[in-house]
Amino acid sequence: MTRPRPGRSGVLAALVLASVLVAGPAARGGAPAVAAPAPAPGEGLSLETLMHHFATTSGVRAEFREVKEIALLDAPLVSDGVLYFVPPRRFARFTTRPGASSFVIDGDHLAFRDETGGDTVDLSSNRVARAIVDNMIGLWSGDLAALRQNYEVGFAADGSRWKIRLRPLHAPVDKLIAHIVLEGDGAQLSRMELLEKGGDRTITTFHDTQVDRRFTPAELARIFPKDGVAPRP
Q1: How far apart are CA 212 and CA 233, in angstroms?
Q2: Alpha-carbon distance 172 to 182, whole Å?
Q3: What pLDDT score does 50 carry?
Q4: Phi and psi at residue 128, in whole multiples of 5°?
Q5: Whole-number Å distance between alpha carbons of 148 and 167
Q6: Which pTM was predicted?
């Protein structure tokens, strides 16, 4: 019996997470952002300061747990895995349990593979996927004006801990997503919640996160093959 391919909730959550991570200033050809100074004692963390921190990483490796609550199912679907981000536009997500799969974005190329086979997608020709990625550019590039143009933005902070709530304002993203909530501590993203318009909810938590990770050539070749095909699970 073959394992079913991931539903729209899983793909959509992966695209949102990828767009958050890959939408740095280098993706637009700009110079890397300079990290803003930490708030002075008694001052709260601002969204502007946080966005400066986001854009300075050299790479990320993190383990994750994803819980998908689907309206048609009595119990949530739970999966575990590891993800990698390499600026400016490389993102890989490998699921290890309950089934093995790989989801890799390298620029405008997306490749997916599981035990049943693989697919590739040209993001530049996929309107919905491209819109999700482009709409999130404002968050990681430090362009707060662009972020507010595409989303209703809510921000709260308590010391170094923060929460950003995003509600899409324009089609086609607003037809699919009710809201996205990102939570973290300092420059690290610790939790992402995606609520779809149909009621399905995906909650992804991150642990054992390595920020400013520098990958060796051998690691990059393994994670992002030059032939554009997702690595085998």
Answers
A1: 25
A2: 21
A3: 82
A4: -70, -50
A5: 10
A6: 0.79
